[in-house]
Hints:
It is built from 13 helices and 12 strands. By secondary structure, the protein is an alpha/beta fold. The chain has a 6-stranded parallel β-sheet with strand order 2-1-3-4-5-11, with helices on both faces. It has a 6-stranded mixed β-sheet with strand order 7-6-8-9-10-12, with helices on both faces.
Amino acid sequence: MARVRTGVRAIGAVLAAVLGASLAGCSSTGGKRAEERAAEAAQGRAVDTPRWTFAMVTHSGDGDSFWDIVQKGAEQAADKDNIKFLYSHDDQAQQQAQFVQTAIDQEVDGLIVSLAKPDAMKDVVTKAVRAGIPVITVNSGSEQSKEFGALTHIGQDETVAGEAVGTELTRRGRKRAVCVLHEQGNVGHEQRCAGAKNTFGGELQNLYVEGTNMPSVQAALEARLQSDPSIDAVVTLGAPFAPTAVKAAEAAGSEAEVDTFDLNEQVAEDLQSGTLGFAVDQQPYLQGYEAVDLLWLYKYNADVLGGGRPVLTGPQIITGKDAAELADYTIRGTR
């Protein structure tokens, strides 16, 4: 009996030692990997694909809240997809082209670019494609995207968005409108105003202003409203210009309704208060997020969305009632 107990104890000791060694082995491999996965999850990362580098080049000027939202969406998708994300911007097409060239020289794994002035960007974007860099265009340039060799375009169709504005102005009984273009040469802006003119039952005029100088914008619009009291609607093409248009109307003694493209916290508040009539949302966060995500899908699985057509993120007409629901999202900077 004693010998049996001793044998059992000996076998138990051996099993314990083996089990301990196995557990030690697990903790040094599987356990470590589990910790790494937990760390990745804590950072919002959901994949274990290679650490690719994507660059985004846009036509944003400094302090443009719309593009801040696009950038935020792209950065959050990059965190999730284990992407090193490089962002650069300039409102001058020549500098945008130089940023794309820099991305080519850096041999990035993917490129996202806006085409507000496509003629100035054609050569360098097609050069990136020839270099084997997959390209997605975003926000502007949907008509040129495929021609330049991009995989797809993400954004709203600017003509369709403009037509939605013209239809809404007509529904509201407006008769004479001004479309305020704050960036000359931007094809998307021209398409918005042209689209609005197509479907508006009244008369629509274009007003070109210097978008980098807000006092000048206000003065130009104020002068137009004073010279033509019959104007009953003003359409701005970016959220930061809507409050300036409101000030211009007040200074001119005009009762014209101010409407705008794009959404931010101030626009959401002004929609709820009735200071603005409506806004056209193209979901900039989604444009940045999906651009990175679709490049990742292409690199990982050769997936391409759109079927040769743009992936649309808008337009959506937002009124005061809608803005109340979106207010929290505008405060956190994602709408």
